[in-house]
Design brief:
The chain is α/β, with parallel strands linked by helices. The chain is built from 5 helices and 8 strands, in the order βαβαβαβαββββα. It has a single domain, classed as Flavodoxin domain (Rossmann fold, 3-Layer(aba) Sandwich), CATH 3.40.50. Helix 1 packs across helix 5. GO terms for molecular function: oxidoreductase activity.
Amino acid sequence: MKLLGISGTITGSKTRTVVKRALDEIQKYYPEIDVELLDMKEFDVQFCDGRNPTTYTGDTKKVIDKIKSADFYIIGTPIFQGSITGVLKNLFDLVEPQVFRHKVMGFIATGGTYQHYLVIENQLKPIAGYLRAYTAPSYVYAHKDHFFENDLVDEEVLERVTKLAKEVAFMQKSLRKVSKSSR
């Protein structure tokens, strides 16, 4: 099983920090799961222009291929102007919806106000619903006050990261069992 953690931004480091922490928790409790971090800062991805996703080249193709090869996801975004990043929205637009169908998604968001957690409920979960993905019941929202420099230090948020990691892994393993038994 392959878990892809996505840091859906090209600025800052807090989102990457929390996504990476979730991946580390997965590795700690489920070492048999193959994890990879997709940090959008490391790629020069084109804007979606409506063409067939198979025609993209370079970094855009690499990113699409990484997403297609994953069995499940932990997706993180900072919240800017009360919304997900354009980088993450573009990523969703570049990948054909059926790639995400019946795959588990866990969500992480970071932001500067305590109300920004609502973006997960009001934007990310509906996008996952449209894509026909399964969403973990828990999610993680980390406010800027939950960090010391760029390290996540708030104990309650760290517990939520562990809970999310365990839920995503449990859901994926359970779905995999059901899928195998129905063959």
